């Protein structure tokens, strides 16, 4: 996140120093925008955290099938929460994805690699992906549809949250004693 943050800020600074050679919007931190994007950043951290923890408990093949489950959540929750109708072909696609999910469970079961915790984390990651899309649309409207400002504010928020929680949770301790 920190590297991405620096990569976003660098070109804007270069565009200011060398006008005409580089065309890149200058990015400044607006605390009001950063605060409005905070739910998006929390959901983004949820995606990263749940995905990484999920991989501890399930196989990569099962994980890949599970990632497609986010499409099913998008369709279902868009209907349930946003009252958006879905086409027949989208519902048919969701049916194929659900069949793949059950096939993945069927294949993981005999190898004893199926994990309830992994499956729950996988579902939570898929839910976070839906809310990420929803909050992205909401925050983009608040910042004049500037994807650069959205990315910048999201990265700033994410860095602050991860640094703060990482320190509290002991993530900055050495993995091996000296």
From TrEMBL:
Listed transmembrane segments: 62-81, 88-105, 117-135
The organism's place on the tree of life at top rank: Eukaryota
InterPro entries reported in the protein's UniProt record: EmrE-like, TPT_transporter
Keyword Metal-binding: no
GO cellular component, one term: membrane
Transmembrane found in the keyword field: yes
Subcellular location(s) of the protein: Membrane
Membrane topology designation: Multi-pass membrane protein
Keyword list, A-Z: Membrane, Transmembrane, Transmembrane helix
Protein name: GDP-fucose transporter 1
Organism (species): Cricetulus griseus
């Amino acid at each position: 996140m920190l590297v991405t943050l620096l990569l976003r800020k660098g070109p804007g600074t270069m565009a200011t120093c060398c006008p005409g050679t580089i065309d890149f919007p200058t990015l400044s931190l607006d605390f009001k925008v950063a605060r409005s994007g905070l739910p998006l950043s929390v959901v983004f951290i949820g995606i990263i955290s749940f995905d990484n923890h999920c991989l501890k408990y399930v196989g990569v093949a099962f994980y890949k099938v599970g990632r497609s489950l986010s499409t099913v959540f998008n369709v279902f929750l868009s209907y349930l929460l946003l009252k958006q109708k879905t086409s027949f072909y989208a519902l048919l696609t969701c049916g194929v994805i659900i069949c793949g999910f059950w096939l993945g469970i069927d294949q993981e079961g005999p190898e004893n690699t199926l994990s309830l915790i992994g499956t729950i984390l996988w579902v939570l990651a898929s839910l976070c992906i839906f809310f990420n899309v929803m909050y992205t649309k909401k925050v983009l409207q608040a910042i004049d549809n500037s994807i650069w400002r959205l990315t910048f504010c999201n990265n700033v928020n994410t860095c602050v949250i991860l640094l703060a929680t990482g320190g509290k949770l002991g993530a900055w301790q050495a993995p091996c004693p000296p």
